[in-house]
Each structure stands twice: as C-alpha cells, then as structure tokens.
Amino acid sequence: MTTKPKLCYFRGRGRMESIRWLLAAAGVEFEEEFIETTEQYEKLQKDGRLLFGQVPMVEIDGMVLTQTRAILSYLAAKYDLYGKDLKETVRINMYADGTLDLMMMTALAAFKPPEEKEENLTLIVKKAKTRYFPAFEKILNDHGEDFLVGNKFSWADIQLLEAILMVEELDASVLSDFPLLKAFKARISNIPTIKKFLQPGSPRKPPPDSHYVEVVRGILQF
Ligand SMILES: N[C@@H](CCC(=O)N[C@@H](CS)C(=O)NCC(=O)O)C(=O)O
C-alpha cells in the first residue's frame, strides 16, 4: 500500500493551493497537517524538516520536500502532466510560472494594509486582462487545440484554470473579452477529477479572509 502524500501548511490557500490542485487533478488523495500555532511552526523548524525554514512542505515517496515550484514540477513529472519532451516541458514551465506569478500577487494582496488592498486588487485584475490572459488566449488561438501544450492535459492547464477562477473572484466579468479562455475554463472544469475538486467539501481552500491573515501573521510574527 502506498502512503498518501502529506501536505504541511496553514489552513488556507497561499503557496500550497496549487499543490493541492495538482494532486487533486491527478486523482491523488492526500493528507494535510495544518499549522495553527507558533509552537507548531517552531517545532517543525527545530526538527530540521524545513530546509530553508519555510513552508509549503510535502512528504512524498520517502522525501521531505520544500520550495513550491520544485514540489509542483516533481508532481507534474510523476503524474505525467509535464509534456512528452524537453520542449513541451519548458513551455509548461513557462506557462505555469506565469500563472504562479499572477496568483502570488493575489495571495500577497490579502496581507497588504487595508488602504492599499483595493488598489492592489484592481491592479491584479488589470494585469490579468492586459498581460496574462491575452497571452493564453493567443496560445489557444494559434494552435487551435483543447489544451495549452501538446494537445494533452498538463500542469499548465490545471494552473491556468486555478488562476482564472482566482481572478474571477475579484472580477466576475474578467473573461468577457477572452472567448477561448471561457471555453477552456468550461472544458477543464469538466474533467472528472477537477469537477470533484470544485465541489463543496473538497480540500480546495476559500479565498483568504481577515481571520486567516491574522492567524498567519501571528504564527510567522510579522
Ligand atoms: N520560495 C519559497 C518561499 C516559501 C515562503 O516564503 N513561505 C512562507 C509561507 S507562504 C514562509 O514560510 N515564511 C516564513 C519565512 O520565510 O520565514 C517557496 O516558493 O516555497
């Protein structure tokens, strides 16, 4: 019997959410340990399990992994979501890095002071509309295929859907000028493992609220 991967992070999206998405899309069940107190976080540090003293941390295949992008690329390779050759893999990396940048801006916005938050969220929607979504719309238009790379479902598709849904939480009409992305969203959301992850009660986490921000600030003491 193989043991389930174990994820260690706060009880929220942050840098762990894309890892949850990738595992769920691959149809892999996982366990989660939520860090709720400073003592718990300090114990992880003392035990020497966090290479650079940071989370996300994932225990999988007898390894203790940290660094979000390293974890994601390991999972993408392991679950055959990483292209058929180096040229497809580098494109998947490029697209995934782009959506990760967009999503990190959104995740960090929650921690901005209230007076800067609104302006920051407006800027994120603007960047999504003018920088990221036009690029993905063009990719889909140029090759006319259902998926971003190699006409096969990959990590890049999973993360683009995650990013679209995240920006739609800020502006529900954000896809109005992107018909191919709208169709992409419907198509990818309908993949059975993803459909399941989008149902209430799945390990998917809600957008960060003020309570979550307070808890994380308390634990990390910033
Ligand atoms: N490059 C790392 C950054 C990890 C990171 O900054 N994690 C935050 C929580 S989201 C953390 O542990 N901060 C505590 C610290 O840096 O001391 C990654 O992508 O995993």
Keywords:
9 helices; 7% strand; binds glutathione; 4 strands; alpha+beta; 222 residues; four-stranded mixed sheet
Average per-residue pLDDT, rounded, comes to: 96
Radius of gyration: 18 Å
User: How do the strands of the widest beta sheet line up side by side?
Assistant: 2-1-3-4
Give the names of the bound compounds.
glutathione
Q: What best-fitting shape do the alpha-carbon axes yield?
A: globular
Extract low-pLDDT stretches: none
Structural class: alpha+beta
Give the termini separation: 42 Å
Task: Describe the protein's architecture and organization.
- With 222 residues, this protein is an alpha+beta fold.
- The chain contains nine helices and four strands.
- Strands 2-1-3-4 form a four-stranded mixed sheet, with helices on one face.
- The longest helix has 30 residues, at 114-143.
- The radius of gyration is 18 Å and the shape is globular.
- Bound molecules: glutathione (GSH).
- It holds the Pfam family GST_N.
- Residues 85-209 form the GST C-terminal domain.
- Keywords: Transferase.
Task: Give the secondary structure arrangement, pairings included.
Blueprint: E1 6-9, H1 17-25, E2 31-34, H2 38-46, E3 57-60, E4 63-66, H3 68-78, H4 86-109, H5 114-143, H6 155-168, H7 179-189, H8 192-197, H9 210-220
Parallel strand pairs: 1-2
Antiparallel strand pairs: 1-3, 3-4
Helix pairs in contact: 1-3, 1-6, 4-5, 4-6, 6-7
The protein binds glutathione.
A few lines on this structure:
This protein is of the alpha+beta class and 222 residues long.
